[in-house]
Design goal:
Layout: H1 11-21, E1 25-29, H2 35-42, E2 49-53, H3 60-65, E3 70-72, E4 87-93, H4 101-112, E5 115-123, E6 151-157, E7 160-166, H5 176-184, E8 205-208, E9 212-215, E10 218-224
Length: about 230
């Protein structure tokens, strides 16, 4: 993804959640100028393996210097040609709105099977049109666009949305509900820590639509068919 300005509205929340998950492998799609790599490495997390997807090949050396262990100089959609690659956390920061809606949907469903958690940061009502299609904003990802997913959390602050999707891989098996409750109890969610924030209290809202069955031998137990 071609680089551009990345809003800092949810940088503190993203780093907090990463620390709670403690992933071994992270994929940063559309790494651009390497914001998330800088956040992670400056936070002292040097044992997390960081892979960047950045279409501009001239950025590869710069991103590796920032602490990325691997840089894939391909389009995000080329990840569909790498179906064996799995990650505990996938980050799409100010990225998914650049795709056609059908492309973004295909990518997210693909990643859902190959990750434990997906972070999405995306704007609303922010027109951007350029001669290069993928440098513009082309699809809107309001909460109704995530209803295909069965277990996710959402926070809005001003015109920015943060989504935390629980993928189908186990990962470190930190329940999404735990992450939501833990983040919402933190003081930084009540403070304005970035000029991009409105000053309103931020809060993650859990959306749990998992398929459930009652255990036929113990009606107090529920079966679910995916990680919590």
């Amino acid at each position: 993804m071609l680089s551009g300005y990345s809003w800092t509205t949810f940088d503190d929340l993203a780093l907090y959640l990463l620390r709670q998950i403690n992933p071994s492998r992270i994929l940063d799609i559309g790494a651009g100028e390497g914001k998330y790599g800088r956040l992670i490495r400056s936070g002292g997390h040097h044992d997390w393996h960081l892979t960047a997807v950045e279409y501009e090949p001239q950025r590869a050396d710069e991103l590796k210097a920032m602490g990325y262990d691997e840089v894939l100089s391909v389009s995000a959609m080329a990840l569909l040609d790498r179906p064996a690659d799995i990650y505990e956390v996938v980050i799409l920061g100010d990225v998914v709105e650049h795709f056609r809606k059908s492309e973004g949907q295909d990518l997210l469903e693909f990643l859902n099977y190959r990750s434990a958690y997906i972070f999405i940061v995306t704007p609303e009502s922010m027109p951007m049109s350029t001669a290069n299609f993928y440098e513009g904003h082309n699809s809107l990802w309001a909460p109704q666009a995530m209803r295909w997913h069965d277990l996710w959390a959402h926070c809005r602050n001003g015109q920015m949305h943060f989504y935390l999707l629980r993928g189908l891989l186990a990962g470190r098996d930190v329940p999404l509900s735990h992450l939501v409750q833990s983040a919402n109890s933190e003081e930084f969610m009540r403070l304005k820590t970035s000029p991009n924030q409105t000053g309103h209290r931020r809060s993650l809202e859990l959306h749990d639509h998992r398929t459930r069955d009652i255990d036929p031998h113990n009606h107090e137990l529920l079966w679910t068919y995916r990680p919590a």
